[in-house]
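Please, structure for the following, as tokens.
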Amino acid sequence: MRKLALLFAIIGTACGSSSGGGTNLEAASTPTFNPPAGTYTSVQSVVISSATPSATVYYTTDGTTPTASSTVYAAPVSVGKSETLKAIATASGFSTSGVGTADYVINLPAAATPTFNPPQGTYTAIQNVAISTTTPNSTIYYTVDGTTPSPTTSPMYTGPVQVGQT
């Protein structure tokens, strides 16, 4: 029995199967993220990279683990809302890297409160009310019935609103 165990140990080592079989490739470098994970008050342009030469990086933006079927990284990823980026790297002659993960919390500042011209008041004639905000590139939604405006149910402001009653 002792000869059989010794013979297996010699054959297993010669075949490279003592650790489960095959060759043991070095793993590609785990991708990193710049800027790093964190909390930001503006949209971030995230660069994903691997230190492994000629590596292909695959990533996801929904927190799922990436695979070789995921999106191939080709340009910085725009992160405009809170999300989790995950990435892996692959390269010829290397095994797949570990999963790099970066959690981004994006707290964009609130848009400035819209103003009205003419301002709130009592008038004896129909008024064409202009609505504006100091927030660049903002979209304004409005109501005329006293309810709170909503981007899904209220009209989008495109020009003066005619107000003829309270």
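The longest helix spans residues 2-14. The longest strand covers residues 83-90.
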